[in-house]
Design a protein that fits this description.
41 strands; Immunoglobulin-like; Fn3_SaeA_4th; alpha+beta; about 725 residues; five-stranded antiparallel sheet; Fn3_SaeA_1st; Fn3_SaeA_3rd; 6 domains
């Protein structure tokens, strides 16, 4: 009796023809072939060729009548061997990679099935390993087997459609370039024969560790054969390149790429691919193997887990194959992770069971990459692919105190400085309104501080200069419209962890503009445009052409905004020097109770001499007349606050009202006098007469020549006299 294995293989391959069975390597070949005719009827149905031969002759006549006149029908050999060769040639040059990977066993079953039509091929495909590609190309397979051209489907008149519709083509189906290998069941291979010399690789082998196994692909054998078998061989000590028997068999395949499930037995797995070819499976297994190429896989660590400790260090655990050496490198998240010795952690803190990072970057997303480094059999070293894990160490927050001073090199700007923290970054803000009190008491989030006014529009983006840990920004200018500027430094670790430092406030009061002095007889009125944002405006007196220090002087007048709106200007009732002076106006803002002054707006006051006079009635005895008595004359006295030399005066009278200028009335006297400051001086005398009139004293010069002299009238009642 045949062996159980031979029966199972015969049933699996569905072999119905004796000449096909003769090419299979059986355990008990002679026994199986002797009873082949008894075994064949046990399969489902009679063999396909017998069924085809038993069809009615009328069908053949009908087919012959359907042939066009003068055309010889195409006939190809239907022997299983010829059908197998045609299928092998068709699959080897087919553009579909899935067709090229159809195994020789499936092609042999198709060749021995007797199928010649699409339907028959689809029926046989149900019993094949490569069922999908055979079904997809059933028409082509039938044409190859029968030798007839592919028939198109009969055209049918399509019903008219009301309108053409745009059809979206289906998305292309992505195919896996490294599908899992389907290992072939084969007889035992004959050992490598050293009689032909050593093995030399004709191509290349690539081995990359993927998520589902080791991805392999290699150079196809350049020669064609009915049967081509590739053997994948592994070893833990060296490349099995001397002979296949120097390693352990991973599997046999007809493909040239795929994914193999290989398990590590050490730091490195050495791989080689050998190829056997022949006219049959038996011939291939008995032929001398050829070396395709060699490669290796360095196994990476596994099970990497990291943890941030309470003291802000990073610790990790991992597993490695026995005999491996581990190196750990650190990357910022988003950077390309590749082996870079410059990023390596201290090897004293790394072992085959884990590592420690005592000084990780704070406040950043970190990627740790662990590599296994193996010494290969040829003396070189190779690293594995990395296994990675992420960590984020939150540094301790601190309040950053910022120092702000007015720039001495660039007036109107500020110099800013602060001490850099060990970790995290510092974000500076300058705002016109002070952040709310208490915002700096505890750490906050980005959302909270932005809601309290520290928004990106107020962020200071000037690059600082590092002076050994002291960060400085010089010449920073705020919005010129701001009176107050509040500077804040924020220790920014993450959007969820920020701490606002204490605010430093600086004020830049604006000076009054468009200032003018309006002269009055007994005072001066200063008008100006009120500077926005200041509390008060103060006026200071100083020598002409010189400035004053407002912090060390007393103002001669000051005005609040409400008083400015009510009065329309600043009134100075203090007597100013007749020879002139300088008036300096300052906008004042109070910061922490201390006045802060703007730049000065200076006015030049040219001065004015004030002349006061009196009209005194006198009696006949040259003494002042008593009340109720008729005077004999009127004497006029004058007094000035600054010396006047040889000044012509005019005493003018007018009936019924006061004269308005020297030419407005009767000229009663025209003395020329010199007056000393502060001395009561006699100017002239008018005899009394019968006519009642008003008299008045004028400086008898044109306005352009008399200079700044103000004549102050006495009470009007004393100016009504009889002349």
């Amino acid at each position: 009796m045949p062996s159980q294995r031979d029966l199972e293989l015969w049933g699996h391959l569905d072999i119905r023809l004796r000449n096909v069975a003769e090419h299979i390597l059986w355990e008990n070949r002679d026994t199986l072939l002797n009873i082949f005719n008894e075994l064949a009827p046990t399969l489902d149905g009679p063999p396909e060729p017998a069924r085809a031969a038993a069809e009615p002759v009328e069908a053949e006549v009908a087919e012959a009548e359907a042939e066009p006149a003068g055309v010889e029908p195409t006939t190809l050999s239907q022997s299983p061997e010829d059908r197998f060769r045609r299928l092998l040639e068709w699959s080897s040059v087919h553009p579909d990679g899935a067709v090229q990977q159809i195994g020789d066993q499936d092609l042999a079953r198709l060749a021995s099935s007797g199928a010649t039509t699409r339907a028959e091929v689809e029926a046989v495909a149900a019993r094949l390993s490569a069922q999908a590609p055979v079904r997809a190309h059933a028409t082509e397979v039938a044409a190859v087997l029968s030798g007839a051209p592919e028939e198109d489907e009969p055209e049918q008149a399509a019903p008219e459609e009301p309108a053409a519709q745009q059809v979206t083509p289906p998305e292309p189906i992505e195919t896996d370039p490294f599908p899992p290998f389907v290992w072939q069941r084969t007889p035992q291979f004959a050992p490598f024969s050293w009689a032909y010399g050593g093995a030399e690789a004709y191509g290349h082998l690539s081995a990359e560790l993927g998520d589902d196994g080791v991805q392999l692909f290699w150079s196809p054998v350049p020669t064609r054969a009915a049967v081509t078998l590739y053997r994948v061989v592994e070893s833990a000590s060296n490349w099995p390149s001397g002979a296949p028997e120097l390693g352990s068999l991973v599997g046999v395949t007809t493909a040239t790429s795929g994914t193999a499930e290989i398990h590590p037995s050490g730091p490195v797995t050495y791989l080689a691919v050998w190829v056997n070819q022949g006219d049959s499976l038996l011939d291939a297994t008995r032929s001398q193997p050829r070396l395709v190429g060699v490669a290796q896989v360095v196994w990476p660590p596994s099970g990497l887990t990291v943890q941030v400790t309470a003291n802000r260090t990073v610790v990790a655990l991992l597993s490695t194959p026995e005999g491996s050496r581990v190196e750990v490198q650190r990357f910022r998240k988003g950077a390309t992770v590749s082996y870079d010795i410059n990023r390596e952690l201290d090897r004293e803190l790394v072992s085959v069971t884990g590592f420690r990072d005592l000084n990780p970057p704070m406040g950043e997303d970190i990627v740790y990459a662990a590599f296994c480094v193996a010494e290969l059999a040829d003396g070189t070293s190779m690293v594995s692919r990395p296994v990675t894990a992420e960590a984020h160490v939150i540094p301790e927050l601190q309040q950053i105190k910022v120092s702000v001073a007015r720039s001495t090199s660039t007036p109107g700007t500020f110099d800013i400085s602060w001490l850099a923290p060990r970790h995290g970054r510092v974000v500076l803000f300058a705002t016109p309104e002070r952040p709310p009190h208490g915002l700096e008491d505890v750490p906050r989030t980005r959302e909270i501080v932005e809601g309290q006014g520290l928004t990106p529009e107020f962020r200071i983006v000037s690059p600082p200069t590092d002076l050994g840990g002291l960060m400085t920004i010089t010449g920073y200018a705020v919005d010129p419209g701001w009176v107050r500027a509040h500077f804040v430094a924020v220790h920014w670790v993450s959007d969820e962890s920020v701490w606002v430092g204490p605010a430093v406030s600086m004020v830049t009061p604006h000076a009054p503009t468009h200032a003018t002095i309006v002269e009055r007889v007994d005072s001066e009125i200063i008008t100006f445009s009120w500077p926005e944002g200041v509390t008060v405006v103060q006026a200071y007196q100083g020598p002409r052409g010189q400035g004053v220090d407002p912090a060390g002087s007393e103002p001669i007048a000051q005005l609040t905004r409400d008083e400015y709106i009510t009065m329309g200007g600043m009134r100075i009732t203090r007597t100013l020097p007749s020879n002139g002076c300088a008036i300096h106006l300052y906008g004042v803002v109070y910061l922490d109770g201390m006045p802060m002054y703007s730049e000065a707006t200076s006015l030049d006051y040219p001065g004015i001499t004030r002349l006061q006079y009196q009209v005194v009635p006198y009696g006949p005895d040259s003494s002042p007349a008593q009340a109720g008595t008729r005077p004999a004359s009127y004497r006029i006295y004058a007094q000035v606050d600054d010396d006047l030399h040889d000044t012509p005066l005019a005493i003018v009278g007018q009936l019924g009202r006061l004269p308005l200028h020297p030419q407005d009335g009767r000229l009663l006297a025209q003395p020329v006098v010199s007056l000393r400051a502060g001395i009561h001086t006699f100017v002239g005398e008018l005899p009394a007469g019968p006519t009642l009139a008003f008299v008045r004293l004028f400086v008898n010069l044109p306005p352009a020549d008399c200079g700044a002299v103000a004549v102050l009238d006495p009470p009007v009642g004393t100016l009504e006299v009889t002349v």
